[in-house]
Amino acid sequence: MTPSSKRIPVENPSNRHVNKTLIALWTLLLTAIAAIAVLAVMWNAQRQHDARRRATSLLAEQLQPFNRDIARLLGDYELQFQRLVPQVEPRNAAQMSLVKRNPTVQHIVVVDTAGQLLYPDSDHIAPQDRSLISDAQLLLADQAFLPAGNEQSAAAGNRSRTEFATNGPVNFFQSNKRSINSSSSGWTTWYHQRGIVLGYWWRQESIGTSMIIVPRARWVADLIAELPSQAELDQAGPTPIGFCQLVDVEGDVIYQWGDLEILSKTPPDAELPVVQPLDGWRWKLFASASERQFSSYDSSSGAIALGVTGLSLALVSLGLFATVNLRRQMRLAGQRVSFVNQVSHELRTPLTNIRMYADLLHDQLQRESSAFDEVATESSLIQRVDVIRDESERLGRLINNVLQFAHADKQPPLHLTDVDINEVVDEVLTTFEPQLISKGFRIERQPSNVMIARTDRAALKQILVNLIGNAEKYAADGKFLSVSTHQQEASIEICVDDRGPGVPAHLHERIFEPFFRAGNRLEDPAGTGIGLSIARQLARQLGGDCKLRKSTVGACFSVCINR
Fold first, then answer.
1. CA 343, 349, 355: angle at the middle one, nearest 5?
2. In whole angstroms, what is the distance from residue 476 CA to residue 85 CA?
3. Which has more confidence, 552 or 349?
4. For 53-75, how does the pLDDT look when each residue is reduced to its tens digit (9 = 90+)?
5. What is the model's pLDDT at position 406?
6. Among 242, 245, 225, residue whose Cα is nearest residue 233
7. Cα separation of 249 and 279, whole Å?
8. Buried (b) or exposed (e) across 132-147, using 16+ Cβ within 10 A?
9. What is the mean pLDDT of the chain?
10. pLDDT tier at 321 (50, 70, 90 boundaries)?
11. Which of 27-31, 245-249, 293-297 has the least mean pLDDT?
12. Three-state secondary structure along 86-132?
């Protein structure tokens, strides 16, 4: 490439539009597939969550019989105590001694309405029992426990031994203080020396409040005896409860049974609080593999996945079909352009010969028209030859436009030279002058001072040919054409004005699109719709632009090129 020339690649507009369409199509399809997949995952996750919640609820129901066993045990204790002590007289030593002989009674504590200890006598309390009886007295005096049937909070039930040891029994009881006025008897629990104490209390209007403390070893043993043993489970055959644990508030295991291998399955499949007053304790159930699979199985997951996969494949197939179809259309369009390009090249050779021989014939007829009687005949022949020349020139311009548009994606290098703009304008006007005058045009030329620009002469000439040819076709009714040149600081402007019907304002940009025509009526002039598109393309390749200015009459095309 020589220093006086440069190449500015221009992308094929049709390829650019098709590529943008394909990008937009695939972006839309992939976005839709991603959105469908996300919604399906969220829906499936919600369904799985609901299925697990239902499974947990079903498994937790299998723990309810164990709670009923514990409630039955406490009910048996309560009936036994009610038969044993219908009315306790703390001053009756024989009666109190009889109550204490019962194996389910570790201690019996009685306080009056003022909270004073009535039984046992403080002087006869063994040292190792003082702390436990003192705790019971505080509970009865402060009414710091809940009677059976009252709602107990999980926070109170889960109070740790560490907090009790740190804050002391008084603070602990005060923090959990509840009124017992709504019931005359019930069960309560509290911690003492790192162990839970179970007590049954009842109210006596004439005396105060009494409590029987059940020996821990006894009630724990009776509770475990109520629960199924491993031998019973083995005799009963397969059970949905693979492994079960009874744990206290600190997670220590009180009792467990079932298949130990399932214990590795953490966390538990279901949990359930033990009935009051042991509601700080919990049942933990680890289901067998078959039960876990059955209870959490959701048959819709496969259908959802299959539906999403099918819909995604359908969308991808649609995108592939559209892509292949558009690519095929692009190939066909390229083949058509290549065909037009080849035909245009083939037409240029005979057209050149026609124009050359028409010029030779025109010159010869002018030289041989010396005889007077032959003037009319020669003049008619010259007019016919002029028609041949004009039409061949018009066909040549059409072929040049077709070739220029066909090579839009591979522009030849510009040959930049110092060009006299006025000279090029006059040359193009001289070419069009016969046709314009024959159609009644009044031509007005408004040259400026000598203007020299470093540009491509052939490209500038083709721009002017297209603009003036456009005025010849579409502004014939106005019978006026004006071409003016204006010199500016960094550019030169060429204006082509006519007095035709003009162009609607909303079409000022669209008329520069390839193949666009403002009107397609039969009476409209014939044309390819690529002349203005090529003019703008060449003007921009020269570093300028081609625009349609606003005008009150006709159309005014402005071409700016760099100097």
1. 125
2. 127
3. 552
4. 777 777 778 888 888 989 999 99
5. 61
6. 242
7. 9
8. bbbbbbbbbbebbbbb
9. 76
10. confident
11. 293-297
12. CCCCCCCHHHHHHHHCCCCCCEEEEEECCCCEEECCHHHCCHHHHHH
Quote the DSSP letter at residue 374. Answer: G
Q: Number of C-alpha atoms within 13 angstroms, CB side, residue 20?
A: 7
Query: Residue 408 — left, alpha, or beta (φ > 0 → left; ψ -120 to 50 → alpha)?
Result: alpha
- Helices 457-474 and 531-541 pack at an angle, to 10 degrees, of 150
Average pLDDT score over residue span 531-541: 88
More confident residue, 317 or 183: 317
Taking the CA atoms of residue 311, residue 317, residue 323 and residue 324 in that order, the dihedral angle to the nearest 10 degrees is -170
Q: What is the separation of C-alpha 148 from the centre of its chain, rounded to a whole number of angstroms?
A: 54
Q: Can you tell me the distance from the alpha carbon of 214 to that of 76, in angstroms, rounded to the nearest whole number?
A: 13
Q: Would you tell me how many other CB atoms lie within 10 Å of the CB of residue 179? A: 10
Number of other residues whose CB lies within 10 A of the CB of residue 283: 21
Q: Which residues pair with 282 in a beta bridge?
A: 247, 273
CATH superfamily of 412-562: Histidine kinase-like ATPase, C-terminal domain (3.30.565.10)
pLDDT in tens, 444-471: 998 878 788 899 998 898 899 889 988 8
d(CA 176, CA 278) in angstroms, rounded, equals 15
CA separation, residue 204 to residues 110, 177, 328, 402, 541 (Å): 10, 20, 100, 116, 110
* CB distance 447 to 35 below 8 Å: no
What are the residue boundaries of the structural domains of the chain, listed by start? 81-294, 412-562
